[in-house]
């Protein structure tokens, strides 16, 4: 299995609006962290009449930077990939300023579970889109066409957006150039995640623009490695079961021995997502409902 060819070095400055392509500009919010990398990349799509994708966190300095970048522009649409606090909180504020609507999807899980991993960003539990997007919906501006793709996995309501004119995909947190994505049940699903990774792989995009980190240009090899990584993780989980490990905690201590222990709670949820996937496929069994503290065995 080839390693994922992550890209972590790129030129940026907080608050600066950078021209990324003829139709794409980006402003990066100053919210760096172990789950957000250098911060949230907000995309401005088009010229004159524009769409804003993932407005980002509610931070005064970030809001001011966006206002400056949008001066003289008409914002016709605000799009959100999913309901995490590093993506959606500024959406309604921005939409109200420009007299437009917020487009996205409601999450299936709207209240936090007691055992759910609390990432730095966390859930924007108050997120409610004005317009509920369905898979395949198309939105247009004078020089841009976006097609919404419902890509559940990272979250149940995750959306990617395809820019027709540049054969590019805005991937949110579904695909990231600097790291793998966290899949955390109950709102996240590994079965859905893998299905949507394979779907995107077949679409043959020239460029993928994640919300965090730089763009991905060699998309097919990157996605092949991304998929292989998850398949390898699942094989590791099966190997742990073969070796007699019965709990997720014990598996994480072995599988993620070289990873910062502060990230082990997130890793445990990814292992849980894999375990649920294995149970669904009939490859593993468990006592009761699958959970972090459940005991598992090979089927």
Question: Can you offer a commentary on this structure?
Answer:
- With 299 residues, this protein is α/β, with parallel strands linked by helices.
- The chain is built from six helices and 14 strands.
- The strands form three sheets. The chain has a seven-stranded mixed beta sheet with strand order 1-2-3-4-5-6-7, with helices on one face. Strands 8-9-10-11-12 form a five-stranded mixed beta sheet, with no helix packed on it.
- The longest helix has 24 residues.
- It starts with 16 loop residues before the first strand and ends with a strand.
- About 3% of the residues have low confidence.
Key words describing this protein structure:
2 domains; Metallo-beta-lactamase, Chain A; Arc Repressor Mutant, subunit A; alpha/beta; five-stranded mixed β-sheet
């Amino acid at each position: 299995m080839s390693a994922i060819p992550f890209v972590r070095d790129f030129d940026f400055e907080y608050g600066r609006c950078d021209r990324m392509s003829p139709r794409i500009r980006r402003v990066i919010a100053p919210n760096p962290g172990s789950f957000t990398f250098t911060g949230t990349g907000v995309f401005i799509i088009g010229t004159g009449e524009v769409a804003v994708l993932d407005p980002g966190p509610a931070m005064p300095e970030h809001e001011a930077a966006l206002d400056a970048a949008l001066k003289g522009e008409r914002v016709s649409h605000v799009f959100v990939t999913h309901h995490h606090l590093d993506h959606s909180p500024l959406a309604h504020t921005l939409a109200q300023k420009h007299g437009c609507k917020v487009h996205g999807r409601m999450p299936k899980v709207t209240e936090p579970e007691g055992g759910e991993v609390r990432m730095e960003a966390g859930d924007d539990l108050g997120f409610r889109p004005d317009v509920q997007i369905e898979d395949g919906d198309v939105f247009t501006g004078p020089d841009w066409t976006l097609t919404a793709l419902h890509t559940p996995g990272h979250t149940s309501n995750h959306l990617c957006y395809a820019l027709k004119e540049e054969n590019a995909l805005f991937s949110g947190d579904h695909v990231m150039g600097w790291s793998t994505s966290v899949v955390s049940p109950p709102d996240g699903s590994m079965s859905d995640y893998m299905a949507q990774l394979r779907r995107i792989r077949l679409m043959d995009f020239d460029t993928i623009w994640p919300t965090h980190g730089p763009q991905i240009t060699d998309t097919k090899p990157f996605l092949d490695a991304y998929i292989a990584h998850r398949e390898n993780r699942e094989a590791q989980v099966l190997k742990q079961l073969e070796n007699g490990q019965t709990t997720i905690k014990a598996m994480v201590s072995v599988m993620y021995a070289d990873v910062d222990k502060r990230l082990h709670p997130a890793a445990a949820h990814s292992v849980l997502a894999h375990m649920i996937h294995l149970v669904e496929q009939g490859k593993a069994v468990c006592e009761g409902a699958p959970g972090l503290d459940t005991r598992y065995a090979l089927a």
